[in-house]
Design goal:
- Helix 2 packs antiparallel against helix 10, helix 4 runs parallel beside helix 10 and helix 5 runs parallel beside helix 6.
- The chain is built from 14 helices and 12 strands.
- Helix content is 41%, strand content 14%.
- The chain has 2 domains: 110 residues, Aspartate Aminotransferase, domain 1 (Alpha-Beta Complex); 225 residues, 3-Layer(aba) Sandwich (Aspartate Aminotransferase, domain 2), CATH 3.40.640.10.
- Helix 8 links the parallel strand 5 and strand 6.
């Protein structure tokens, strides 16, 4: 697949460097959504009879793509909903380690419930600081984003695995919203116990869909209480008191979750390995170009591995200036955030640089 402008028509008009804020809707997903609603229009409740098959299929696609058995995949409307369900199932007395200025939906659920919270600053040596904080605080829970939303700093997966081996009883909970869909990832071989991700960004699945992946032992530590009719039914949650069902109360939205399934089909068609390679190549070029021009912080330039999200020097005026040139970015934190996906090119980067 070479002509991404047919898959993402907005690229015919704009240089889109804002996936970290909102992914694009692919044509195949849009077409599937139209067919789904047409089936609902002419079939009414007969569409509902297909609900179990649709949802089970999406659960299986998520699990296969990210290395997690489908009976440990929960489909939720967004990361925040699933994460709050998870946190609400904790005792509330646990010591929690968080990252300063991490995504609010990671930190707020703990601070709003009065957990004993400690923080680590996000610097170029964030892994060293996390390890030091573990040694000092001995946290019961470590909650974090795999990729930071403000500046794109990406935690090292091998470091996390090493840390988990030293602290096996600590519950590692990750937000993968700015990560999932950018690299090959094997959940069951990772350090993470529970991982959630909204999929409207890098997976290009549209809004209203997300997922959580769980290691088997999480159900022993989290007493989630959410429930509702249909929560304990389905191919992968047949038993009463199903842990998975606690994250899926009531009837699920086949339009939005089905969109996730179609988005995964597109990812598989392109191949995640190819996506990873394209993103990494462009991210390396961008990092070098931004560093040469003094546009990014030393905390980014001095790190070996970085995501494709960058916070460059600028303000809202720059955002609006670029918008007049049909370059889409966003103001975040103290600068302007730009982000590159697999459908972006070196020409997109050069076009941005020409206006900077």
């Amino acid at each position: 697949m070479k002509n991404f402008k047919k898959v993402f028509p907005i690229l015919q008009q704009y240089t889109y460097l804002n996936t970290a804020a909102s992914g694009l809707l692919p044509t195949p997903v849009m077409e599937w959504r139209q067919e789904h609603d047409l089936d609902f229009l002419v079939g009414g409740s007969m569409l509902k009879e297909k609900q179990g098959k649709i949802l089970s299929g999406v659960r299986e696609k998520v699990g296969k793509l990210f290395g997690c058995l489908p009976e440990r995949v929960a489909l939720v409307p967004n990361f925040s909903y699933g994460f709050n369900t998870l946190v609400e199932g904790l005792e509330g007395s646990e010591k929690v380690l968080l990252l300063e200025q991490d995504y609010p939906s990671v930190n707020w659920p703990f601070t709003s419930r009065g957990f004993d919270v400690r923080y680590v600053s996000i610097t170029e040596k964030v892994e060293d600081d996390i390890e030091a904080a573990f040694a000092k605080a001995q946290p019961h829970i470590f909650a974090f984003s795999l990729v930071q939303w403000l500046n794109g700093i990406k935690l090292d997966q091998e470091f996390l695995k090493s840390l988990k081996s030293k602290y096996p009883d600590t519950l590692f909970i990750a937000d993968g919203t700015q990560y999932m869909g950018t690299e090959v990832f094997d959940f069951d071989n990772s350090a993470i116990d529970a991982l959630g991700a909204s999929t409207y960004k890098w997976m290009n699945a549209g809004y209203g869909n997300a997922f959580f992946l769980f290691k088997k032992q999480v159900a022993e530590k989290v007493g989630a209480q959410t429930t509702g009719f249909n929560a304990l039914q389905g191919k992968y949650k047949p038993q009463e008191g199903s842990f998975l069902g606690r994250f899926e109360p009531g009837h699920q939205d086949t339009l939005n979750y089905g969109s996730l399934g179609e988005a995964i089909d597109l990812i598989n068609q392109i191949e995640l390995e190819t996506i990873q390679s394209k993103i990494a190549t462009l991210a390396t070029s961008a990092k070098e170009a931004f560093a040469e021009r003094g546009l990014i912080d030393s905390a980014i330039t001095n790190r070996k591995n970085h995501s494709s999200i960058f916070n460059i020097k600028g303000d809202e005026a720059l955002v609006q200036k670029l918008r007049t040139e049909d370059i889409i970015v966003i103001a975040r934190g103290e600068g302007v955030r730009v982000s590159f996906h697999y459908f972006n090119t070196e020409d997109d980067l050069n076009r941005l640089l020409s206006f900077l």
